[in-house]
Amino acid sequence: MKMKGLSLGPLAIGGFSIIAAASPTYMKNFMHGTLPVALKGSVLQTSGQNSTGSCSSGTASTAKAPLQNIFAALTADEAAAVTKFLHQQPELNLTANANATSWDNVIVLVELLQPNKSDALPYLNGDGEIPRRYSSATIQFQATEEPYLQEYIIGPLPVSNETTLESLNYPFNKGVGKQRIFNADAEAYQQFLANVSASVEDILIEMFNATYSNSLEDTLFIGPSDPLWIDDDTGAVTTWNEYNPAPTDIFNTGSLLRTGLAVRTDLTGRNPSKWSVLGWYYNGEFYKTTEDFRSAFYNGTFEFFKPGVDGDWGATSPSGPVLPHDDTPPPVSVQPADPRFGVDNEETYIEWMGFSFFLGFTRDTGMRLFDIKYNGERIVYELGMQEAMAHYAGSGPGQSSLSFLDSYYGFGPNAFELVNGYDCPAYATYLDTSFYWREERHSHKNSICIFEHDAGYPIARHSANNYVYTTKNIHLVVRSVSTLGNYDYLFEYAFFHDGSIHVTVRASGYIAAAFWAKNEDYGFHIHDTVSGSMHDHVLNYKLDLDIHGTKNSLMKLEVIPTTEIYPWSAGVPRNTMKVNKTFIESEDDSKINWAPNNAATYAIVNKDTPNKWGEYPGYKIAPVTASTAHLTIVNSTNLKNSINWASHHLYAVQQKDTEPRSVYAFSSLDTAHPVVDFGKFFDGESLVQEDIVIYFNLGMHHVPDTQDLPNTVFSHAQSTVAISPQNYYLQNPVRQTVQQIEIDYDLDTVLNIKKFGVQDAVCSYDMSNTIANLSNYEGGDLIMRKWPYDPSNPFFGMTEVETI
Ligand SMILES: *[C@@H]1O[C@H](CO)[C@@H](O)[C@H](O)[C@H]1NC(C)=O
Ligand SMILES: *[C@@H]1O[C@H](CO)[C@@H](O)[C@H](O)[C@H]1NC(C)=O
Ligand SMILES: *[C@@H]1O[C@H](CO)[C@@H](O)[C@H](O)[C@H]1NC(C)=O
Ligand SMILES: *[C@@H]1O[C@H](CO)[C@@H](O)[C@H](O)[C@H]1NC(C)=O
Ligand SMILES: *[C@@H]1O[C@H](CO)[C@@H](O)[C@H](O)[C@H]1NC(C)=O
Ligand SMILES: *[C@@H]1O[C@H](CO)[C@@H](O)[C@H](O)[C@H]1NC(C)=O
Ligand SMILES: *[C@@H]1O[C@H](CO)[C@@H](O)[C@H](O)[C@H]1NC(C)=O
Ligand SMILES: *[C@@H]1O[C@H](CO)[C@@H](O)[C@H](O)[C@H]1NC(C)=O
Ligand SMILES: *[C@@H]1O[C@H](CO)[C@@H](O)[C@H](O)[C@H]1NC(C)=O
Ligand SMILES: *[C@@H]1O[C@H](CO)[C@@H](O)[C@H](O)[C@H]1NC(C)=O
Ligand SMILES: [Cu+2]
Predict the structure, then answer these.
(1) 136 pairs with which residues across the strands?
(2) Is there a catalytic annotation at residue 657?
(3) Mutation probe of ligand 9 site: the residue of 71, 112, 116 with most atoms within 8 A of C-beta
(4) For ligand 2, atom 6, which residue shows the shortest CA distance?
(5) For residue 317, what are the contacts with CB-CB under 8 A and spacing of at least 6?
(6) 385-394 pLDDT per residue, tens
(7) 404 φ/ψ angles, rounded to the nearest 5 degrees
(8) pLDDT tens, 336-357?
(9) Domains and CATH numbers, the chain
(10) Which phi-psi region, left, alpha or beta, contains residue 684 (left: φ > 0; alpha: ψ -120 to 50)?
(11) Residues in the active site (predicted)?
């Protein structure tokens, strides 16, 4: 592993800490207002899990993408050329990140600018030039009293004397790609909190036997909430900061250990001597000044509780006696032949059983899928996660202030190496990813896995008195895991023989708990002084379906109870049900919640291409799991206009080149004035035979209980939406697969066993292939954490660091 000289230190963001930065200078810049990780990703090569033995089990076959992947990230050379070009622009007044202080302008991000659909489609359809390539850049202007981020467009690429630099504004409905930063001086702020802590050191020692001094040796931590509170009228920037004890073991229990003692600060402006304390909170009581808090503490009636003590209850290794047989090898899936899918490493293009698609990878979102075709026809132009929110609530200010918009931290940089044989089957094919980060390029090996899998139940079967048939439910899975501080999000796209695509997110990891004090209305009491702390997870996805072209409509199909008198019912009303087929014709009606009792389904159809029965072919969108969620809170005080995508389950809008994404990653810096306000996408436009984009939400309402200790489990915290054909094929495409058996029989006699030419897996399999050698595992740690005291190196697992 090649790594640069690194140092680490916990820095706060959102009451959680971030381990940031490749140099102490970076760390200065690393809080609200500075961007934790700036990165760009691209999917690199496969590294197949080789095996020996009589069964062949090589790497995925080399597919050849029919076209270039125009969604692929910038190459290292392109990113380097753009970085150099930016440094040559005097008006940017840039300082190299390696030398920058919080008062220098720096490059945060250099990424591919996603091509306009209007330019991409002609190329993908084979009747247009390849779109010219452009880069975007995020520059952090800090050599000013009012620091901000600004987006730029650089191109065309490759960099030449034709390449220009312009402000990038068209994708941002605020009008400008510009975002104020209200806390650029993160290190000074932590020092301010150390000064505040010193003023109550006697109390902290009595309560917690520790104080906070902004040093790596601290066993008590404090940092600001995410997001900051910004008062539009006065311009005041304030935040609550809660003390957390440090974990004492290897386990990442920081988010379970809370003290309940919080202080509100005013951090307006860039002059630390003007910052101030606005009050204290403990156990239901608010104290206006430090003096009030101090006199209450010493007046003899102050009651305090020991904060949670780290211990076995937060450890994740097995405990208790081994269950019967649990230490013998469990069933394991193997791949007895070469992978049955193809990968074009160069273009990150994947083909499997009639499906084909390109992968893209960005800092903000991690992997996304483009140009998904089935049997040669485009079904989906774009499919990918846009944003993930975790919105907390509580009777105290610490928890009430917490609302994470995790693309701020970035899903790309937090997608680490998957654990072969555990996160994905040992036979999976892996892709590496890479990303740009403040003038450096990092790679994470084996961070996306691709594998075929047997669902464990047949996809179709029937038996009668003379035959039985049953078809295996083999499907292709593309998976990655991003660990955002305390939580691990497992993202998955699965492709099935019925032509459907399942989009899934699962959550595990440590909950962000609260101190248990007068908050029984906000969760369960789950340990000595720990409240489970209710929160909602809402993850927004973009789904741009194109059914036989881009001109599509949104059909609603509702099953409704009815009372009908039929000509044959002898005048007797019959209580029954029927279907109500309607179209949602305007963006005025396109904010949708799943109907009670799942009574309504929604489909993108093409009215101009009816099938031979006159029905409109399409693909429907429906939840598979009971749990998909929109935000419970109405008009969130924390997130304001930044989450207008979280109020419903499903949205439909007209596609626009000016609306490529539902969010801007850094909107949580000023939630009242998001650079992209999804609410503005709705302007009453027609949804009748137009290019329609769906945005849907996955997620769950999470009221953690003792079963979330030590960790939330994926099997419970999961959410899936299926995108499935509706009248698209004249019959189910599952008949394309020969992985079925038909047994014809007559009473007791088997007459015929039909296997349709499928080869049996009769080779001998070397079971050692199911045991991955994990001694070279490089996944490890996070670039930044939202919780304090991460013991390890923030760059562990990042390879191939090159200075650009
Ligand atoms: C950082 O500053 C030093 C001293 O001025 C200079 O030699 C070096 O080139 C700078 N580094 C970068 C990456 O610009
Ligand atoms: C350029 O940035 C430096 C800090 O890196 C700052 O001192 C200087 O004032 C800036 N110049 C202009 C013209 O803004
Ligand atoms: C740009 O570069 C090309 C080839 O490198 C050259 O022919 C052309 O004259 C240059 N144009 C300008 C305006 O410098
Ligand atoms: C913290 O206190 C020290 C000593 O009083 C002072 O010099 C420093 O400016 C203070 N820092 C902040 C950020 O308040
Ligand atoms: C307080 O912390 C110190 C170490 O900082 C430790 O030695 C001591 O035992 C602790 N006291 C109590 C009462 O926990
Ligand atoms: C002590 O402080 C509490 C909380 O502020 C207050 O209610 C109480 O009156 C105080 N008691 C005395 C004796 O000052
Ligand atoms: C059918 O659905 C439409 C649109 O939701 C609604 O206006 C209409 O009343 C429904 N018809 C019946 C019979 O329920
Ligand atoms: C949301 O809440 C704010 C503050 O209470 C209020 O000013 C605003 O009008 C509310 N907006 C909506 C759409 O209800
Ligand atoms: C993409 O489309 C927008 C809106 O039409 C346009 O302003 C912009 O120039 C296009 N971008 C590129 C790179 O062509
Ligand atoms: C696992 O890989 C390491 C490093 O390549 C090697 O030293 C070790 O022998 C391997 N272990 C096994 C059991 O193959
Ligand atoms: Cu949760």
Answers:
(1) 111, 153
(2) no
(3) 116
(4) 143
(5) none
(6) 999 999 999 9
(7) -90, 135
(8) 999 999 999 999 999 999 999 9
(9) 76-183 (3.10.450.40), 186-314 (3.10.450.40)
(10) left
(11) 406 (proton acceptor), 487 (schiff-base intermediate with substrate)
